[in-house]
Design a protein that fits this description.
Blueprint lengths: L5 E4 L3 E2 L9 H14 L6 E7 L2 E6 L1 H13 L6 E7 L4 H19 L6 H46 L2 H6 L3 H10 L5 H17 L5 H7 L1 E4 L2 E4 L3 H14 L1
Parallel strand pairs: 2-4, 3-5
Antiparallel strand pairs: 1-5, 3-4, 6-7
Helix pairs in contact: 1-2, 6-7
């Protein structure tokens, strides 16, 4: 039987060894090379678990490098070349894997997990922890900044203008004109928003900004959708603040 490689989706492969035993920098470099070459130079050996999944038998580093390549570019890193252990080739492939592993272990050093291996593992773990901690701190800082900006904006709104009054009291033509002159939307959309706002407030006054956004709806194909998004409402509020 001739030995040949197969292409398998990386997401269908699992590995029993932890990713943390390999240095992040090494995996990153290997992943970039895989993307540049669009494949691995050494196909990994996998065993079929079922029709849709496989597990790594040999080539743990290559697998995790391929997994990182897929994270970077899902399209280019989607597939990886493998040798699949099937019933008809299991004996030969298993013998090769054992033989080559033994040769590599004998030439590269002790097979046991020594103090250097432990130090490398801890360094990698510490590096990953620092990265995660930095990301969490950055996210927390961003959230705090956003909360402060919202609080400040609410203070300014309370002092200078009540956004509901813009839609509660102004005539339809005035609402449309000011939305259009501020460059917040095109003429047709501004007129549509103004007309809907007047129609809705005649039925019942708006209770809040959220109530206003929920009730001002415009046709979009066969559906009725919000006429003013949260982002657009923020633009309108900022315009009102600068205009008063």
């Amino acid at each position: 039987m001739k030995l040949s490689t197969s292409l398998v989706a990386v997401k269908k492969i699992t590995c029993n060894k932890p990713r943390s035993i390999f240095a992040d920098d090494d995996l990153e470099k290997a992943a970039q090379l895989i993307l540049e070459s669009e494949g691995v130079i050494n196909p990994i050996v996998v065993r079929r678990i079922n029709l849709q999944s496989y597990e790594v038998v040999d080539g743990d580093f290559e697998y995790y490098a391929a997994a990182r390549a897929r994270e970077i570019d899902p399209r280019k890193g989607e597939m990886i070349g493998v040798f699949i252990i099937e019933p008809e080739n299991e004996d030969n492939l298993t013998k090769q894997v054992k033989l080559f592993r033994n040769i590599n272990n004998n030439t590269s050093g002790a097979e046991t997990f020594n103090s250097k291996d432990l130090e490398k593992f801890l360094n990698n773990l510490e590096s990953r922890f620092e990265k995660i901690t930095t990301q969490l701190l950055e996210q927390a800082t961003t959230n705090i900044k956003l909360e402060n900006e919202i609080k400040e904006l609410k203070k300014q709104i309370a002092k200078k203008v009540e956004p509901l009054e813009f839609f509660q009291k102004l005539p339809q033509a005035e609402i449309s004109y000011r939305l259009l002159s501020a460059g917040l939307m095109n003429k047709a959309k501004a007129e549509q928003i103004a007309e809907t706002a007047v129609h809705e407030r005649e039925k019942e006054q708006f209770k809040s900004i959220n109530d206003l956004m929920e009730r001002i709806k415009v046709p979009h194909g066969k559906k009725m959708v919000r006429g003013i998004s949260s982002e657009k409402m923020l633009d309108i509020v900022m315009y009102l603040l600068s205009d008063n």
